[in-house]
Amino acid sequence: GSTDLNVNSKLQTAGLIGIGLLYQRTQHRRMSDLLFSQISSFVNVNEEPVPDEGYRLAAGVSLGLVNMGAGNKTLTTQGQQNVDFQEDDDENRNGEVDLKTNNGLMDPKIIEGLISTVISVHDIEDNSMPDNSHAGALVALMLMFLKTNNISIADKLKIPKDEAKMKYSSYIKP
User: Fold this and answer.
1) Is the predicted pLDDT of residue 42 greater than 80, yes or no?
2) pTM of this structure
3) DSSP string covering 120-164, please?
4) How far apart are CA 78 and CA 72, in angstroms?
């Protein structure tokens, strides 16, 4: 959230959606990292941090829009485990920002972080209220893996069938 500027939280939430629409399908590295960090962050309301579910959901929608349909384009699926990401220069010679669709690879840490946010079980609510992040992370994963037919993601997110894990089913959000 905005800490230096006293901006209404609803305006900040709309700004996140605007980032997603502006960078739609670009797989922009910096925007992906920024939006991923906002899925579990707080919004400042009257200089007090508040865990706003709408803000976190907007961050998830935007992250999904930026990486729409690119879930299979990760380092691990390409067999390049130890490749470092290079920061791209987003401006061309005329100073204009290039927002073309990126054919690069996604950071698998973002996908792993989203999956761990969705499948984590919290029987005691802590100050960060991680349950508010579940919806945003799930929507981001849905849009990232749209039309990829990736069954492994669906398997990781489905409700467990064995008895040992069923005791946690009361903590699983629908």
Assistant:
1) yes
2) 0.77
3) ---SS--TT-GGGGHHHHHHHHHHHTTTS--HHHHHHHSPP-SHH
4) 9
